[in-house]
């Protein structure tokens, strides 16, 4: 990849800063009704520029209809969902998945996931898209749909093959009548942005519609050489060639190691700065085994956590803070025409039902006579099973309609009875095909039973949507045509609903809606055989499907099913995001255009606080002016003002507040205060033309003259004020008349000062023994004794104290076993001090250095590396050397050890796990590394390296923060006293825990 020059980078940034913050508009195109691409941007059919900021969701494998996922994702403010789909998905299911996404005012981008990494399957994906039933679904939704041909098709694909394969795919899809924007993923499992840059312009030219976008999946971890700067460079180059790019997938890590980290914060920031869409992977749950990619715990907005919460809500460049839904997506879809009710005269309508069994309470027998084809009865998984309808009295029957669900009977009987006890077979079916069965027969009875003998699929129950029963009496009933209708509550589209009545000698006595009578002349009128339901009445009804029952003087009452919808556009504001600079001379009112779309405007809120109309903002016609004086009082960062219409999704104005005034500074920016030794703290100010307005502890203002004083450019924080604060970290905010605040971080402690010894280590030479002198810094404390393990040294025999000098007598040291001695100096207050005394021969022999191969706090494998150097004059046998690494097991699982490399041979390096009988601070176990005789010797002035790993048998994580030997900063070889080494079992270096 060619790197751009610094000048080019600045030019791109300058162009970005000059772009208006409001929504760009392009001329509308009447050729195609939906979204289309111009240059590198996507526009809707109203000409509004749209940057896709949304989510990936594995719809096909979780909630196939998108319920409730879509509504939960919509709470983030996302404007789009990349819908994971499969070749197994039916046209009907696809229609539902797309419609439900659009119903939440989000742009659906449907993709097939079946060819991930497999280039040979591209034609199979295209064959799915150009199936007539799938094309019909796409065309039905083409005003707002995008089609992502396939997820990450192909691994290593040449540019020649990539061009040829996708050109063929594009042409076939266009010829089939698909004219929505087509999205093409990069190869190499979506990660190769360079193939998009090299092939993208060619494919745009090859597309008859020139309506393509390209998607890179930034699974770009540190381990593969990707850095934040690499992300910036690649995005910058795509902008330079005007490539219509989106980042279709990315996560925060490739795996749970430091090298698996992905620069996702840079992706968020620079996608926003370069107006490139992004869709993180994945809403969750069900990313198994990579559960760390789940943005939610259970798929709900409330369980967003970790990086998911950051990318969706809290980051300045999160979806919540930058996504805008185009106006064309803010209206609701029209209501769908209800299913045609059963023919009028249905003797079974509303009659009581008895069922032999129920799959659950959701599927009761009453559902087969409620007149709805959206509810059903379902039995248990047994044979036989039946449902009985009580017609109320003996009826003549000549026709039965059965509307089966997919779980139908291949063998069943229709039986009748006058008493519900003795039954007569009137129809027997041995080759049932399900769906809708229209059966002619001749029978009479009060009770009609459908008796199932054999199910279509042994793993399915019997299941029926509805049953219609007809006879001579049915023909005498009144009817209505049509019996279904749709009403739109949009004030611009409201019309009366008119139907034709066929009374059939009966008189209409009234109309009821769920038992409530309509008022003749007000709610409806009749002219001849025409019935008109008034739009004023319909407009007052709730969204959903309602059933009107026409009550005649005789016969079975006919019904009209009316689906009530509302395509009134939601209220909106434009622009939705603006910049405000607090710098003097740069401040100006913020003016936005507001469209209420027949909704009542109640005011503007900053969180829960109402802005004051006339003071904080004004409204003239459709222009809303937010006063600069109000904005200037708000803190730096993103201000979210909600325009309250009492809707689920009220429009939000996002104001990015900055201040380019010269900043003041303070020195130092951190300070310590010990409450046992109180002293004033002096802070030096550099004003840069500003003045200090106040100092804040949270929201509490410090009092000038009492809590602090100011003289010239020095602020003195008074010890009396500081003594009254609780121990811990306290940030104090220095607020100036202009520019950014300065933060002083105070570390307040309330501890007894510790005593110290100098030096902390000493060498004792047995061949030329001398006393060892130690200097004490008592800090107000008193030395109460010295211990060697549990044995106390005897004053004036083993050691002497004169003033602040302790002398350890050579006579005492000569009595000790050769090796390293650890003497504990015990003081009456504060912490003990430790003196390490080593034998001269050992101290000058073997040095052990340590390098930490895995520095993340959570890791499934610990990777220490060691370097042993012989600094003495004599050769050391490695078989006599051992090294101990101390840690906590964080579990009881067995552990495994590997030596990855050593010049003495990996097989000559041993590792033994030892569980400590008496666990100590930050350790309950240690790994002892040793050498076999085959490792040989370590000559004078020579070194040897050992690189090892260890892990639990189930690869669960260690928490390294509580490991005694863990060193988070050891990224090169260092000496580390929490690693111990031994020669012939005698402590050589390090401090045991």
From TrEMBL:
Class of this enzyme: hydrolase
UniProt EC number: 3.2.1.4
Signal peptide location: none
Domain of life: Bacteria
Entry annotated with the keyword Heme: no
UniProt KW keywords: Carbohydrate metabolism, Cellulose degradation, Glycosidase, Hydrolase, Polysaccharide degradation, Signal
Catalytic reaction annotation: Endohydrolysis of (1->4)-beta-D-glucosidic linkages in cellulose, lichenin and cereal beta-D-glucans
InterPro entries per UniProt: Carbo-bd_X2, CBM2/CBM3_carb-bd_dom_sf, CBM3, CBM3_sf, FA58C, Galactose-bd-like_sf, GH, Glyco_hydro_5
BP-aspect Gene Ontology terms: cellulose catabolic process
GO molecular function list: cellulase activity; cellulose binding
Any single Pfam family the record assigns to this protein: F5_F8_type_C
Protein name, entry field: cellulase
């Amino acid at each position: 990849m060619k790197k751009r020059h610094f000048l080019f980078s600045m030019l791109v940034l300058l162009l970005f800063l000059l772009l208006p913050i409001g929504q760009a508009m392009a001329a509308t195109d009447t050729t195609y009704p939906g979204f289309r691409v111009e240059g590198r941007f996507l526009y809707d059919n109203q000409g509004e520029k749209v940057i896709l900021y949304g989510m990936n969701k594995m719809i096909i494998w979780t909630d196939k209809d998108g319920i409730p996922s879509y509504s939960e994702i919509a709470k983030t403010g996302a404007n789009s969902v990349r819908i994971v789909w499969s070749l197994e998905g039916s046209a009907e299911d696809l229609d539902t998945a797309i419609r439900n996404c659009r119903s939440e005012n989000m742009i659906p981008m449907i993709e097939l996931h079946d060819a991930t990494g497999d280039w040979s399957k591209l034609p199979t994906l295209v064959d799915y898209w150009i199936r007539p039933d799938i094309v019909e679904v796409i065309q039905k939704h083409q005003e707002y749909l995008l089609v992502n041909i396939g997820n990450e098709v192909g691994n290593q694909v040449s540019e020649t093959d990539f061009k040829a394969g996708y050109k063929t795919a594009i042409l076939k899809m266009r010829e089939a009548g698909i004219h929505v924007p087509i999205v093409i993923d990069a190869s190499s499992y979506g990660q190769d942005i360079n193939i998009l840059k090299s092939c993208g312009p060619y494919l745009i030219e090859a597309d008859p519609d020139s309506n393509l976008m390209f998607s890179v999946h930034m699974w770009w971890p540190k381990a593969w050489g990707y850095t934040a700067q690499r992300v910036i460079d690649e995005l910058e180059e795509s902008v330079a060639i005007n490539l219509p790019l989106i980042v279709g997938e990315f996560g925060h890590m490739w795996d749970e190691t430091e090298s698996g980290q992905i620069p996702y914060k840079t992706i968020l920031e620079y996608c926003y700065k370069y107006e490139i869409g992004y869709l993180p992977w994945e809403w969750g749950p069900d990313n198994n085994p990579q559960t760390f990619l789940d943005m939610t715990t259970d798929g709900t907005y409330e369980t967003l956590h970790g990086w998911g919460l950051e990318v969706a809500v809290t980051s300045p460049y999160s979806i919540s803070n930058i996504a805008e839904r185009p106006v064309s997506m803010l209206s609701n879809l029209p209501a769908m025409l209800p299913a045609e009710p059963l023919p009028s005269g249905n003797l079974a309508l509303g009659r009581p039902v008895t069922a032999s069994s129920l799959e659950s309470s959701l599927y009761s027998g009453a559902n087969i006579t409620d007149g709805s084809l959206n509810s059903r009865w379902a039995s248990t998984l047994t044979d036989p099973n039946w449902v009985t309808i009580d017609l109320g009295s003996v009826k003549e029957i000549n026709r039965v309609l059965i509307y089966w669900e997919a779980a139908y009977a291949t063998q069943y009987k229709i039986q009748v009875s006058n008493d519900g006890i003795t039954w007569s077979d009137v129809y027997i079916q041995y080759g049932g095909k399900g769906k809708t069965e229209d059966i002619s027969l001749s029978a009479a009875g009060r009770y009609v039973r459908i008796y199932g003998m054999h199910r279509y699929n042994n793993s399915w129950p019997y299941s029926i949507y509805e049953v219609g029963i007809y006879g001579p009496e049915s023909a005498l009933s009144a009817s209505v045509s049509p019996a279904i209708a749709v009403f739109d509550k949009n004030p611009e589209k409201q019309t009366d609903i008119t139907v034709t009545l066929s009374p059939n000698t009966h008189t209409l006595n009234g109309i009821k809606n769920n038992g409530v009578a309509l008022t003749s002349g007000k709610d409806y009128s009749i002219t001849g055989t025409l019935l008109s339901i008034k739009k004023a009445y319909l407009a007052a009804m709730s969204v959903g499907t309602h059933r009107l029952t026409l009550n005649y003087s005789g016969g079975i009452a006919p019904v009209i099913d009316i689906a009530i919808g509302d395509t009134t556009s939601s209220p909106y504001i434009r622009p939705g995001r603006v910049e405000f600079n607090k710098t003097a001379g740069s401040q100006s009112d913020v003016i936005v255009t507001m469209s209420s779309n027949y909704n009542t405007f109640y005011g503007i809120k900053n969180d829960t606080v109402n802005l004051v109309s006339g003071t904080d903002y004004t409204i003239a016609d459709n222009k809303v002016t937010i006063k600069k004086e109000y904005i200037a009082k708000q803190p730096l960062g993103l201000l979210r003002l909600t325009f309250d219409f009492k809707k689920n999704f009220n429009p939000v104005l996002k104001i990015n507040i900055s201040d380019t005034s010269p900043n003041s500074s303070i020195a130092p920016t951190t300070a310590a205060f010990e409450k046992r030794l109180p002293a004033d703290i002096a802070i030096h100010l550099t004003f840069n033309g500003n003045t200090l307005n106040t100092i804040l502890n949270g929201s509490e203002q410090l009092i000038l003259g009492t809590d602090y004083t100011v003289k010239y450019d020095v602020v003195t924080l008074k010890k009396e004020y500081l003594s009254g604060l609780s121990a811990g970290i306290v940030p104090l905010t220095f607020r100036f008349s202009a520019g950014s605040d300065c933060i002083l971080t105070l570390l307040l402690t309330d501890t007894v000062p510790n005593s110290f010894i100098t030096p902390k280590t000493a060498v004792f030479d047995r061949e030329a023994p001398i006393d060892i002198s130690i200097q004490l810094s008592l800090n107000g404390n008193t030395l109460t004794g010295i211990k060697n393990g549990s044995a106390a040294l005897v004053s004036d025999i083993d050691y002497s104290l004169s003033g602040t000098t302790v002398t350890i007598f050579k006579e005492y040291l000569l009595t000790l076993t050769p090796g390293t001695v650890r003497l504990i100096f015990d003081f009456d207050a504060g912490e003990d001090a430790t003196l390490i005394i080593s034998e001269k021969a050992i101290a000058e022999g073997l040095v052990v250095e340590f390098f930490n191969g895995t520095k993340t706090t959570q890791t499934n494998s610990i990777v220490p590396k060691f370097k042993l150097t012989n600094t003495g004059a004599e050769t050391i046998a490695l078989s006599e050397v051992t090294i101990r690494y101390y840690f906590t097991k964080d579990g009881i699982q067995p552990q495994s050890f590997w030596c990855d490399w050593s010049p003495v041979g990996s097989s000559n390096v041993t590792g033994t796990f030892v569980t400590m009988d008496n666990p100590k601070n930050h350790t309950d176990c240690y790994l002892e590394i040793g050498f076999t005789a085959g490792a040989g010797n370590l000559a004078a002035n020579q070194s040897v390296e050992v690189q090892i790993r260890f892990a639990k048998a189930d690869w669960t994580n260690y928490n390294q923060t509580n490991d005694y030997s863990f060193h988070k900063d050891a990224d090169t070889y260092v000496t580390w006293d929490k690693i111990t080494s031994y020669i012939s079992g005698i402590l050589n270096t390090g401090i045991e825990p």
